Amino acid sequence: MKKIAWLLACPLFASPVFSADLMQVYRDALINDPVFAAARASLDAGREKAPQGLSGLLPTLSASGNTAWNDADSNPRNNPELKTRSEYNTHAYQLTLSQPLFRWQNWVAYDQAKLQVAQAEAGFVQARQDLILRVAQAYFDVLNASENLSAVQANKQAIAQQLELAKKSFEVGTATITDTHEAQARFDLVMAQEIAAESELEIRQQALQVLVGKDAGPLAAPRKDAELNPPAPNKLADWVSAAETGSLTVLIQQALAEIAAREVDKQRAGHYPTLDLVANQGRAKSFTSNSIGAVDTDFRNVGLQLNIPLFQGGQVTSRQREAAANRLVAQSGLEAAKRNSALAARQYYLGVTNGLAQVRALKAALVSSQSALESNKLGYEVGVRINIDVLNAENQVYVTRRDLAKATFDTLMAQLRLKAAVGALGDEDVLRINALLVEPGSAPNSFQSRAQ
Fold it and tell me: What is the CATH number of domain 61-102+273-308?
């Protein structure tokens, strides 16, 4: 729980301000995302459990009063001549102070309240981590869709040039009409791909806008020299162990299990006696039937009130059995949370390590694809390659470039999800990834620059 308190108190770290980098988008989402706003309000509500639980241990003070109109007829049977009729008001008020001296269920409820506050704080930190993941995913989805559109447009431009070359070659008799048809077919296909890519980009941009409440504009992309680092520590067992104890899901379920265990004690206390200190002070005004008339009575009393429950129809015992069953439910939920957190740590750890290997392989594949494209272009010019060879080589370059971008974004997301799996994801992780980005328009895109 100390980690939770630190994360709650941790301010936003300073970072270079770009027009729309990941950190800026995250800051906007902190202010504008309605889901996170609801989590913040839930935290405020959850923290009120502490004073509510404490109230059961503190004294209570109440005031009461009454007034009544009295109409009484007195008619003695043996002496009707003494018949009387009285009409009068009576008034009374009192203050009552009650201080619980022994109410074991109230002490248990106070312990539960403190656990509920810890649960609410863990839930808020989890909501903040979820916001980081949602923002990063939406951010990288836009970048990925933009990279895919750029690859399709670059491929379209290359195919258009190849189509024009095929037409000219056919006109001069150095190529067949088949080359022209193949290039035209590829051009028509890439036109359809461009429409789909534009639509996908628009959808991803709208999804990001939902989080930040406005159009984010151009986004910073990974730098050309950005290097992705392996997990630290670079040992799967350490991450699994940390997830089983530090995952926010585990901490929340742990609090629920402890609350359920105390609920058993609370319901068992229904069999225990209670002892309260009670003090009253008040005044009553009444009338008598004799000549005395109105009478004002001031009263004060202090005493102990003992209540011993004997039998309540079996309700207390039934609630105790219910609480015991709910305790088993909470314990099973805690065990499931530990296992799922450990599984998530394994998945995301492998996602990072395998993603790094995939990025390295795709970088090498991109270099090879570019070399193959240049060779096919040269071969086509000297007549040892046909047009379809060039088109295939061009398509391979852009497919590899697109796959490299996606693998990079997926690896960055796996890094964030791995930190979230152990409950350690925070603003510093956003800053770390933000340092890999470059301001829009200040430098060529890392993936595009490698393909040129």
Answer: 2.20.200
**CA-to-CA dists, residue 254 to 251, 281, 312, angstroms:** 5, 47, 33
CA 259/CA 250 separation, integer angstroms:
14
How do residues 367-377 score in pLDDT, each as one tens digit?
A: 999 888 888 88
CA dihedral over 412, 417, 423, 427, signed as positive or negative: positive
CA 403 to chain centre: 29
Residue at token pair 């890999």: 436
Class at the top of the CATH hierarchy for domain 2-56+103-272+315-451? mainly alpha
Radius of gyration of the chain (CA): 38
Q: From CA 25, how far away is CA 8, in angstroms rounded?
A: 20
pLDDT tens by residue, 226-265: 888 899 888 999 999 999 999 999 999 999 999 999 999 9
Pairing of strands 221-222, 274-287: unpaired
- Confidence (pTM): 0.82
Token pair recorded at residue 180: 């022209």
